[in-house]
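[job 4471] stage=fold_predict status=RUNNING
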Amino acid sequence: MAAVAALTLAASGCTTEDRYTAGGAGIGGLGGAAIGAGITGDARGALIGGAIGAGTGAVVGNVVGRSQERPGYCRYSDGNIYRCPAGY
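[job 4471] inference complete, writing structure tokens
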């Protein structure tokens, strides 16, 4: 657990997006490992759960980080940043 936490801190970048991505991966990985170990009762389940949780957490963290870069603006899949439509 300590190694995962240290790796997450070392991998966190300088931009908001990078910090959210790394944080999401770390939290998702730890949560997934705990759930995987709880369900299966062995290390293999913890590894699989940790991998799935880290991947999912990184994706969610990246999306959240992108939305925090410039409040009121959205980054679209083409890479451009536009003013968000009303309600977003």
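[job 4471] summary: Residues 43-69 form the longest helix (27 residues).
[job 4471] exit 0
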